[in-house]
């Protein structure tokens, strides 16, 4: 049980640390990151960032904040509930005046506005195809340790509905959640973890979704082939940056396959995964959060750099280890 607690703590701390590492380089091109920083090896002051310039060094972004909002909604309601999360999301947005900022993604912003106006939950999340659901899904993975994959996929749907009620977004979140869950449960084969993620992305539970059933699993498999062929870190990063196709490289079909490829290439090592994500470019704080959940769960908190854990804890004043433990034991796991 102690090892499982360490892996659950690794998942949540992994989200926050990799998010914070990527906060300064988010939406930069890979070439610009190389030009400005050479190589990111630690937290950077985000003053050069185009979106997070107001943050302090070591601060996480809305990726982790929304992960915490989802986690607390699960603990409050004792289950994963779209209604509970929608209420928590609106409360968070009002308390922090989120709509007056530019830190949240377009899908989440539209959904919050609709929820505030009284729109039905699944309607509020319709059209959400960006990576905001995949980035925050790790609390479901922790809460559902020991549950069946089918039950977990239903919980993923509940967690995504208020902001990302589309097949592609839920497929991506399902892949990340199942991979993180398998790692927390103790699976030590990175390949088997990745295979389970691909399977989860093929048939997501999405009873109220709109949009096409896009074949995310093919994009994940393509990204994994890139990782398999890469003979060095720079080759991997340039190839993965070219692989991403969205204008801001923030679509689910960009972030999830690339994060999965980084996790696979790094063989589950959190410290490598987090730095690769921060050096990639594009929406790299979110890619880091996704890769960080999976690799943090695989590595466990004991293998994450202690100075990184300390820095993020001091800056945020949030005890993510305690929160992970509460989620893990909420159903008697």
TrEMBL record:
Entry's family note: Belongs to the ADP-ribosylglycohydrolase family.
Coiled coil: none
Residues engaged in binding Mg(2+): 61-63, 283, 285-286
The organism's place on the tree of life at top rank: Archaea
Cofactor(s) listed in the protein's UniProt record: Mg(2+)
Protein name: ADP-ribosylglycohydrolase family protein
Keyword Hydrolase included in the entry's annotation: yes
Keywords assigned by UniProt, alphabetized: Hydrolase, Magnesium, Metal-binding
MF terms in GO: hydrolase activity; metal ion binding
Matches recorded under SUPFAM superfamilies: ADP-ribosylglycohydrolase (SSF101478)
Cofactor binding annotation: Binds 2 magnesium ions per subunit.
Species of origin: Candidatus Sysuiplasma superficiale
Keyword Metal-binding (UniProt): yes
């Amino acid at each position: 049980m102690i090892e499982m607690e360490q892996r659950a703590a690794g998942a949540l701390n992994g989200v926050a640390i990799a998010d914070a590492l990527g906060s300064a380089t988010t939406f930069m091109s890979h070439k610009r990151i190389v030009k400005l920083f050479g190589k990111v090896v630690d937290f950077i002051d985000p003053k050069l960032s185009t979106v997070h310039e107001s943050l302090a060094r070591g601060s996480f972004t809305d990726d982790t904040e929304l992960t915490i909002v989802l986690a607390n909604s699960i603990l409050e309601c004792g289950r994963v509930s779209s209604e509970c999360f929608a209420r928590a999301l609106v409360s968070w947005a009002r308390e922090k005046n989120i709509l007056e900022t530019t830190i949240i993604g377009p899908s989440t912003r539209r959904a919050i506005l609709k929820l505030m106006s009284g729109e039905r939950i699944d309607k509020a999340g319709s059209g959400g195809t960006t990576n905001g659901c995949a980035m925050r899904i790790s609390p479901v993975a922790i809460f559902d340790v020991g549950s069946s994959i089918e039950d977990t996929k239903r919980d993923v749907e509940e967690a995504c509905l208020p902001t990302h009620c589309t097949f592609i977004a839920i497929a991506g979140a399902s892949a990340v959640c199942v991979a993180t869950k398998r790692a927390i449960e103790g699976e030590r084969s990175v390949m088997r973890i990745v295979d389970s993620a691909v399977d989860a992305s093929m048939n997501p539970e999405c009873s109220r979704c709109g949009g096409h059933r896009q074949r995310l699993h093919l994009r994940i498999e393509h990204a994994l082939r890139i990782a398999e062929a890469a003979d060095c870190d720079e080759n991997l990063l340039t190839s993965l940056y070219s692989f991403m196709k969205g204008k801001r490289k923030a679509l689910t079909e960009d972030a999830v396959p690339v994060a999965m490829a980084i996790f696979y290439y790094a063989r589950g090592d959190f410290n490598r995964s987090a730095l690769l994500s921060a050096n990639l470019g594009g929406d790299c704080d979110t890619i880091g959060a996704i890769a960080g959940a999976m690799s943090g769960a695989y590595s466990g908190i004991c293998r994450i750099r202690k100075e990184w854990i300390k820095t993020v804890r001091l800056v945020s004043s949030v005890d993510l280890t305690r929160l992970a433990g509460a989620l893990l034991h909420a159903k008697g796991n």
